[in-house]
Batch of 3 targets.
Target 1
Amino acid sequence: MIDASDRAGLFMTTIDAVTEGGDKIRCDACPVMCYIKPGAAGACDRYANHNGELVRVDPHIVLERTVSHGGRLVPFQAGGDWDGKIVHEPNVFVTAIGAGTTYPDYKPAPFIVSSQIDGVDMVTVVTEGIFSYCGVKVKIDTDRHLGPETATVRVQGEAVGHVSTGEYGSQMLSLGGVHHLTGGSKKEGRVTCDALMDLSNCKPVELTIDGGATVVVQAGYPPIVNGVAEERMRVGCGSATIGMFAKQWQGKVDEVVVVDDHITGVLSEHQAGKLLDIPDTGIKMKGRRSTPGRYFQVAEPGTGWGGTRISDPLSVLGPFNPKEARPGLTMLMVSTTGEHAAFYVLDEALKPVETEMPLDLKLSVERIQENCEPALCTVLFMGGAGGSLRAGVTDNPVRLTRSVKDALTRVTSGGAPVYVWPGGGITFMVDVTQMPAGAFGYVPTPALVAPIEFTLRLSDYAALGGHMDYVRPLTSLRDSTEVRPMPYMPGQRA
Amino acid sequence: MKRLPQIALLPDGRRLHLQDGPIDLVIEAKGRTTEICAAYDAAAHRFAGLLDELCEELTTLRQAADPAQCTLEGVVARRMHAAVAPFAASHFITPMAAVAGSVAEEILAAMLGAAQLERAYVNNGGDIGLHLTGAEQFTVGLMDRPDCHGLMRMMTVDADDPVRGIATSGRHGRSFSLGIADAVTVLARTASQADAAATIIANAVDLPSHPAVIRSPANEVQPDSDLGARLVTRNVGPLTENEIEDALRAGAHKAQQLLVAGLIEGAALRLLGETVVVGSTGEAPALHAHHESAIENVVHA
């Protein structure tokens, strides 16, 4: 995370720390002489035991983009080797995490930092925005049916959001929003706020969908649907899978059915099969035919084969047509992820009988698996910077909005890039896995506290009515004024 | 390497910041410029060496206070003892429960001894000593949880009020709590009294042996904790509305006792989104406890 060459300048020296019987250390920074256990901080919250080493924990997170996600002890230029430069690397960025704010933000944002980038004075207005209009958009990579669209999503029985659209290989959920946060019962608001905060801080949250599944969602991890961890996203719908692999199946098997909740594909009838002159097999599919070789609704959605509820793939087939079928005809049935696959040979009565799959077909199934990307949950925090937050930045809030739209002001959240929606206001989305750990907090409104930074040229800042009196050089942040502890870590702080 | 306290004005140029080890003071004085300078000089002067003074008696300060007699010598240490002594007969309490308020009080006294001020405060991490004259007021914003930001409600202290100390205790702060309160804010005549009382009331907001409350011995988490092996609250799981009410009622009962005994002027108790107010808090003069919703007290962005 932080290599040895950086260490000396980043952390206070360790010579004063005395190792006491194994893991705890005794801090010698002041006469209190705290004993500090690993992972804990001393009484001052300034010094901590990091793997047996006494380190200084900083008031602000000066984020190096290269510091991997999850790093908690981050570089802080408090040592004696200050070389006068405002920032050492262009990548060092002061984030709003821990900047603190009041609500409403009638006071200037806690930190308005000037630094020089490319010789131009830049200003980063660092604040923690309080968002009562906020939520998360969750993308769950799965073919399994999680619940009907618009169904209510619950945490601890409280409604926190709803099932949104199905996307390619994924199910979207929309959670939070002002109506769940403050429009319902007090408990609904509290549970919603906690769920949003946990999801945004990359912690796992169990969601129950009315008339659907129970899903454990954690940003950056596979979803766990009804207790089973999802492994892979499908390579494509059943029809697309036929198109991709038809040539590899040609000559190795007579028929292939790719079972899919959305569009089930049948090789012999599919355009791809026709182009390869694959003969008819007399197969009879259940479901509604869309175009040749493509079937909708072969089975009810569920958590079985290809996002359907079936466990026996033969249940999607009717009897083979004796005019075209023949004994000995071979058939591969496979799901869109290759997770389920079976091989059949028609007997004298034209009934499919499951048989050991030939090696080359096994390889084709593995190829489908290989082409499926790992299934993940992704969480985008979405919030709107309201009037009062903008007032903390400038005395004419709408000019900040215009400045953002005109791309003169760059918006980041915890140093992570954001997407600012077109249209009015400053409504942005950010991938929570790009943000430092513990970036989100809450207030009892209930509303989420999220870091937000506006970076612009000093001259532009003055022009839009910035609080010029409060602009501080980046160097001034190196002293310990306005220290606050590192992000709250339940169970770790002493 | 000689350790020096940090003494600096905050960037606003008005407030003084003093820090040494775990003591972190934010100070503001109002009055004539020369008086403010004299007050800040006195504060900085008194602050230098104060931590060392306390640490000389740290071993005794970390032991249960004797309700009848005080063997401590330092003036701050003796104030700490005096603040906790009224509780020492019936509760386990060490003088450390009043350390923050007692330090705030000491620095405030040094400032007032050196200058004529219209208004001043010494804020020691939320434990605050106040000086008010004439029409001056002090407005306090209450936080829901010390580890999160955001104001829950405002309270105003006038010069006419007897209140000169404000302190907050709870399970999220720097110190451990034996109870489950998210925050208990106490108004009292002095900062040291407020500090000790906040600890006692926060400890009383509790649901003994409730399975959702995770506790562990204090010294397992912080080896030199003055609470020794006593079980301190580490986490509070989901509670029903009735359980929240029961826990708050237990705390409010304790607060009411302290109010009647004249040890506090008012208290606001907070647990999982519910608030109970006891006594005078600058906006709720009634003597009976009542519930309030946080949502009603905060406007939208």
Target 2
Amino acid sequence: MDYSQEVLAVYESRPRTLFFKLGLAAIIIFLFLWSVPSVDGPLISQSGLNTVRLMFEGLANPSWDKIFSLKNFHVPYLMYETLMVAFLGTLIGTIIAVPLSFVGSRNITNKYVAFAVSVLVVFIRTMPFFVIGLIFIRVVGPGVFAGVLAIGFTSTGMITKLYTETVEDMDKGILEALDSTGATAIQKLRAGIIPQLSANFASHSLYRFDINVRNAIILGLISAGRLGFDLQAAIGNFRYSDAAAYLYGIIVVVMIIEFASANLRKKLIYGKR
Amino acid sequence: MSKEKPSFFDRTKIVLRDTLTPYVSKKARTHKTDAFEVVEPYPIGLYVFIVLIIVFILAIDATNVDLIMFFGNLDNMWRIISRLFNPNFGFIGRMWGPLIETIQISIGSTIIGAILAVPVAIFSSSNIVKKSIIYNPVRFIMSLIRTIPVLVYAAMLMFIVGLGAMAGFIALTIFTFTIVAKMLYEIIETVDMLPYEAIESTGANKFQAIRTAIVPQVLGSYLSIVLYNFEINIRSASIIGFVGAGGIGLLLNDRISWRQYEDVGMILLVLFALIILVETLSRYLRKRLT
């Protein structure tokens, strides 16, 4: 077979990435082998298999009376409570984040203040939120309210970061144009700033609400919320039918919230109503 | 001739009028010049605001908000925070074991989860598997698995594989698996399909076509997704110990329940450094990759 000279020339000068690939593979294999010793002990024991079987039996027939009863402390009520915790936490985060993001934007304040705010944001974001939850439990006692405060505190970090990016992208020319028409401060706010930022702000808050619903569930594992607490108690006491009821509640609600929030955010950003 | 400045009352009235009239009259939403006429879309801001207020009241009712207790115990919180900011550097000797275990859990679970995710991602991308009867169920099952938080998996796995790192390892693997599969199929669906079709037309089978036409296009994004997941996993691995599934969370939980906030401060400081280090490294590598 004879190839044309140009094809051969291109083929000869193909990028040589063999060493890069081998090196990458070696690093990955090394890291993997290094991390294996952390998992010691037998993977599957007889009692473990038994537990798996019981769990699947529980998943197959959940306690239907818990799923469909509207009484206090049954699944619909717990899901409602979780959503309310997430809502209130997101609201607290948003209310704190709005002024903080204006203070933290480099195009509004000077860069030292902006740097201080960004350090604060990084600090809040790296704190594990279970630690924050436990601190708030020490302050207000175990319960849903501690979860609200913890979620509000942790949300502030991410919401401020996202809001700051939005504010830094803001078009300031509109404000100058409004200035030239003699608009007052309130009118500038209403016609120049709110229309520019509200859609993005709402979208970021919705995104965080989506995350907060999951966080509100797992904060219950440290008794700062009722759903996670009951779920853990059900698993711990081998009441797998009840645990399955809670899990089905979580699956349905989280899926609905995820779907609704994704669609709403798409509408907010692309402006279809 | 200088006009007198309108009073505060008048100005408030003007603002309220400008804000509220578009809700009731179409005329206020119509802007007319000689050349054109524009009708603003119907505003929904007020309704959103009313709904938010109602939900807010319901939420206050449902979550036992007790601001008096909160502000009454605020000095307690300041005491804890001031102790947190006064880390006990002598504690660092006891931390290395759990810290390394945390890193090991997150690396191992990221690698296994990321490798398992590849075939699933291929089966759930609509441009390679062209039958919606295959990719829709796969996607649905993956999003079903994804809805359960990773700590709930860890709490359940503890009763299967026992206390310790294994439960956290498997939980994080499940989590990485689902997230990487989702992000990867979204990337695969945006690739240029012409090379793939060209290679299929030479008689190559599907596997060969994917290897030569799809893999080079998505490899960089795939590695960057994996690194991003590693960032998430290192955070999750540090709290997974709170339910007893290994890592530094176990120690953190223990120190908090003994109210040794100086030790907690030290752990938080080291975790802070670790997370910043991992994030910086992964941002750098991801920038190089794309």
Target 3
Amino acid sequence: MSTQATETEAIRRSVTVDCSVEHAFETFTERIHEWWPLGRHSIDHYETGTPAETVVFQGGAGGQVYERTKAGEELKWADVVAYDPPHRFVLAWNPSREQDGPPTEIEVTFTDEAGKTRVDLEHRGWEALGAEAAEARQSYNEGWESVLAGFAENAST
Amino acid sequence: MAYRNAMEALGDRTRRAIFEQLRSGPRAVGEIADELPVSRPAVSQHLRVLKEAGLVTERRNGTRRIYRLDPDGLGELRDYFDDFWSEALAAFKVMAEDERRDA
């Protein structure tokens, strides 16, 4: 496996839960605040070392997933781009204060399997970050040009 | 894991401000310090931490040190979530099966 493939390959995880599809979907979305490890993943935690107050999954068209920090700020993690309860949702995932990087995509599906529910999660679109890296490299290139131009100017006076 | 180190490095507001500045391109220590209410030696110290976390790289240009974001840091973001989702889904399973209100 090449390093490149590993870096951009979608992350896939499946888990089977002993409950109905409806209950699994509701737990993942409306009740996300009851299980999401905010001490492991929240912007507040990155910035201050203490977990965010809560996380809210607002379903439906134009919905969002956002955290509420201890200071009361609401910081967006994702836009809901598809919402088909109780079977599937898709998020454009970009948990950052500035929202300036490209989002990755998370799709979660809920499938009935003999009374239990299989939950499949796919986190993809890592190549978009690669594109950002290419853009960033371009801006670094330009940055270096001006640095070197300044250097040349100084050096030749 | 390196990404966790990166997150710890970014847990400091000043380091996060420095990191955000470098997103727009490489800068020298003095240029970074000019935009922050901290001393130049303090900025150098923060840059050292960011460098050790694999977030920035350093290059000498004469007597100046120029800092830029390390593009290799991006792959670590995927690695982080690869690890994270296993933990998050385990927590989800416990909660989904806890009440079984309509199972």
